[in-house]
From TrEMBL:
Keyword Cell membrane: no
Pfam family, one: DSPc
Region of interest (Disordered), ranges: 300-328
Listed EC numbers: 3.1.3.48
Organism per entry: Clohesyomyces aquaticus
GO MF annotations in UniProt: protein tyrosine phosphatase activity; protein tyrosine/serine/threonine phosphatase activity
Entries under SUPFAM superfamilies matching the protein: (Phosphotyrosine protein) phosphatases II (SSF52799)
Catalytic site positions: 91 (phosphocysteine intermediate)
Keyword terms: Hydrolase, Protein phosphatase
UniProt entry tagged with the keyword Hydrolase: yes
Location of the Tyrosine specific protein phosphatases domain: 68-125
Protein name (Swiss-Prot/TrEMBL): protein-tyrosine-phosphatase
Length: 328
C-alpha cells in the first residue's frame, strides 16, 4: 500500500490531493486527527469522519486572497500537532493551494523563506508549485514577519488597496471612494527627511515617507530604507506620492484622471491617473499620483536623525539563515 506524502522532519505533517482522503488505512496508520481542506468544490462530509476538519474555500487562481487565511490555517495545523496526532493538508491535486498553506506554516514555525519552505515540501511531494499570485503573497507574508494578525498590518492593508486599484483599473474605472487609502491617515508619527511645499504659497503638500519610488530611481548601493526617503533622480520631472488627505475632494469624485490643486492657493501642482502614468524617465507608475517638480520646492528637515517607514514597493526577500532538515 502506498504511504502518504509526509513532510520531512519531526512534525507529523502530510500533504495530498482530495483522493488522499479515500486511503483510510493509510490515514489511520499515520494517526491523522486533523484535515485542512483548501479548495472550493462540494465535499462529501463522510470523507472527514472522524477527523477535526477545517475548510478554506479558495480557487487556484492568482488573484485569490489566501494570505488573509494564513493565521487561521497556521493555528489549525499547530493545534493538531499539539494534540499529538497527524495533520493532512490537501487541495484538489496537492500542488498549489495546499502547498501554499504548508509553506506559510513552515515559514512561521521555523522563520524561513517561502523558497526554502517550498524546497523542503518538495522532498515529500515533488509536484508542489503554488501559483505566482500565491508565491507573491507568501513573499509578502515573510516581509511582514509572519504576524499573528495579518489584517491589522499596514503592509497587508496597502496590498489590499493595490488590489482594489488594479481591479478598478482593469474595469476602466476609478476606485470607489471608501476604498481609497489615504496614507497620512495611517501614520505612526515617524520623522521625515524632507517635505514638499507649494512653490507659490509654501503650503506643505507631502513628506518624504509618502514618496513612491519607481524603478528608475532605485540605487542598488542603497538600503531599502534609504531608497524610501530620497528624491527622484534629476531626469524625473515628478514626485510620485501616495494618496494624501488634502487630495480627498478630487480623488473621491470617481474620475479616472485629473489635476491636483494646492488646497491653499489653488495653484495646479500635479495630476493623477488611476490607470497609471509614465514618468519623464520612461517608467510607468500605477496608480499615478504626481506632484510636478516645477511647482514644488523640496525643503530638507532640520533634524539630524531620521526614522524612515518601509518603502511602498515590495522589496525582494532578504536571505534567511540556512537551515537543515534537523531544524524542521
Amino acid at each position: 500500500m502506498a504511504l502518504l506524502d509526509r513532510v520531512p522532519g519531526d512534525l507529523n505533517l502530510y500533504i495530498g490531493g482530495i483522493f488522499t482522503l479515500r486511503r483510510r488505512e493509510a490515514l489511520q496508520q499515520a494517526n491523522i486527527t486533523h484535515v485542512l481542506s483548501v479548495l472550493r468544490i462540494p465535499l462529501d462530509q463522510n470523507l472527514f469522519s472522524p477527523f477535526k476538519h477545517m475548510v478554506v474555500e479558495v480557487d487556484d487562481v492568482e488573484d485569490e486572497n489566501l494570505l488573509e487565511h494564513f493565521p487561521a490555517t497556521n493555528k489549525f495545523i499547530q493545534d493538531g500537532l499539539n494534540g499529538g496526532g497527524g495533520v493532512l493538508v490537501h487541495c484538489a491535486m496537492g500542488k498549489s493551494r495546499s502547498a501554499t498553506c504548508l509553506i506559510a506554516y513552515l515559514m512561521q514555525k521555523h522563520n524561513i523563506t517561502a523558497a526554502q519552505a517550498l524546497s523542503h515540501i518538495r522532498q515529500a511531494r515533488s509536484i508542489c508549485e503554488p501559483n505566482d499570485g500565491f508565491m507573491k503573497q507568501l513573499e509578502l507574508y515573510g516581509q511582514m514577519q509572519m504576524p499573528e494578525q495579518v489584517e491589522e498590518t499596514p503592509a497587508y492593508q496597502r496590498w489590499v488597496y493595490q488590489r482594489e486599484v488594479e481591479l478598478s483599473r482593469a474595469c476602466g474605472q476609478a476606485p470607489e471612494a471608501e476604498k481609497i487609502r489615504f496614507e497620512d491617515e495611517h501614520t505612526n508619527g515617524e520623522a521625515s527627511k524632507f517635505e514638499l511645499r507649494c512653490r507659490k504659497c509654501r503650503r506643505p503638500l507631502a513628506t518624504s515617507q509618502y514618496i513612491i519610488q519607481h524603478a528608475a530611481s532605485t540605487n542598488t548601493n542603497q538600503s531599502d530604507s534609504e531608497k524610501s526617503a530620497v528624491s527622484p533622480p534629476k531626469n524625473c520631472a515628478h514626485y510620485f506620492v501616495d494618496p494624501l488627505t488634502w487630495m480627498r475632494p478630487e480623488l473621491e469624485q470617481g474620475k479616472l484622471d485629473g489635476r491636483l490643486e494646492c488646497p491653499k492657493c489653488h495653484t495646479n501642482v500635479g495630476k493623477y491617473a488611476w490607470q497609471g502614468m509614465q514618468c519623464s524617465c520612461s517608467e510607468w507608475v500605477v496608480p499615478g499620483i504626481s506632484l510636478s517638480k516645477g511647482r514644488i520646492d523640496e525643503v530638507r528637515s532640520r533634524t539630524s536623525t531620521e526614522i524612515r517607514r518601509p518603502p511602498r514597493s515590495i522589496p525582494p526577500l532578504s536571505p534567511s539563515p540556512a537551515f537543515s532538515r534537523q531544524n524542521l
